[in-house]
């Protein structure tokens, strides 16, 4: 009958949008599953940095860092050759050189982001390859060339350096990094969300947040890898 026909057509029209959304949902699910596979591939990948079978804990105190005949290469390209350094506790060492000269590679060897190809790096006479990775990295605060920030508040980004820190300590670190004043200009101040990779901040502001985080950690070894390249002089 005409009534049945029109009822059927109305039902078809009403079903069109939900079915269309279901097809799009399936595409999103498939993309999500593919992304999940890639994430688990990374999670399941074994690190090239292996912990010693009987690791030594490095105590939290001022340290002497020594490079002995260190060689390092990426694949077949030699980056560092026969590096010898002795940095005593409390000393400041500046590495100056042309871009691509191996400065970043050298400092990345200290927290064992990579292992030396030849030679050894010692902290207080202990070869870092024999130290527990967690105790080694607990002794180091590092600010990299490219600021590493999270899609979270300014407070939580700074507190990542010491998650047990009180608010006054976080604010003190921000003042020491000369970040406090610009943070206070935001309506939500320290509770301001900075977006993915700190997208709501300028380059200099990102670096100051990272410096504040490193200062809050208060580690015996502080590494600044061109950490002020975006700061105003």
UniProtKB/TrEMBL annotation:
Bilayer topology reads: Multi-pass membrane protein
**GO MF, one example:** ATP binding
What is the name listed in the Swiss-Prot or TrEMBL entry for this protein? ABC transporter domain-containing protein
Q: Where is the ABC transporter domain?
A: 65-233
The organism named in the record is: marine sediment metagenome
Provide this UniProt record's keywords sorted from A to Z: Membrane, Transmembrane, Transmembrane helix
Q: Which residues form the signal peptide?
A: none
Which Gene3D superfamilies does UniProt cross-reference here? ABC transporter type 1, transmembrane domain (1.20.1560.10), P-loop containing nucleotide triphosphate hydrolases (3.40.50.300)
Keyword Nucleotide-binding attributed: no
**Keyword Methyltransferase (UniProt):** no
Q: What is its main location?
A: membrane
The record's section on InterPro entries has:
ABC1_TM_sf, ABC_transporter-like_ATP-bd, ABC_transporter-like_CS, P-loop_NTPase, Type_1_exporter
Q: Where in the cell is it found?
A: Membrane
Gene Ontology CC annotations of this record: membrane
Q: Which PROSITE patterns match?
A: ABC_TRANSPORTER_1 (PS00211), ABC_TRANSPORTER_2 (PS50893)
């Amino acid at each position: 009958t005409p009534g049945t026909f029109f009822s059927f057509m109305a039902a078809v029209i009403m079903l069109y949008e939900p079915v269309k959304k279901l097809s799009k949902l399936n595409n999103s699910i498939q993309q999500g599953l593919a992304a999940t596979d890639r994430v688990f591939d990374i999670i399941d990948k074994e690190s090239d940095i292996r912990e010693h079978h009987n690791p030594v804990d490095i105590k939290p105190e001022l340290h002497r860092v020594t490079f002995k005949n260190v060689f390092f290469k990426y694949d077949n390209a030699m980056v560092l050759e026969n590096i010898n350094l002795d940095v005593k506790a409390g000393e400041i060492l500046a590495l100056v050189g042309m871009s691509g000269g191996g400065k970043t590679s050298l400092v990345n060897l200290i927290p064992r982001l990579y292992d030396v190809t030849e030679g050894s790096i010692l902290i207080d006479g202990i070869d870092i390859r024999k130290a527990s990775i967690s105790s080694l990295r607990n002794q180091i605060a590092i600010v990299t060339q490219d600021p590493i920030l999270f899609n979270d508040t300014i407070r939580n980004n700074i507190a990542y350096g010491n998650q047990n820190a009180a608010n006054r300590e976080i604010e003190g670190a921000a003042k020491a990094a000369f970040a406090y004043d610009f943070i206070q200009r935001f309506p939500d101040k320290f509770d301001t969300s900075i977006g993915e990779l700190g997208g709501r901040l300028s380059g200099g502001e990102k670096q100051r947040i990272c410096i504040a985080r490193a200062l809050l950690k208060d580690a015996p070894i502080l590494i600044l890898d061109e950490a002020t390249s975006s700061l105003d002089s």
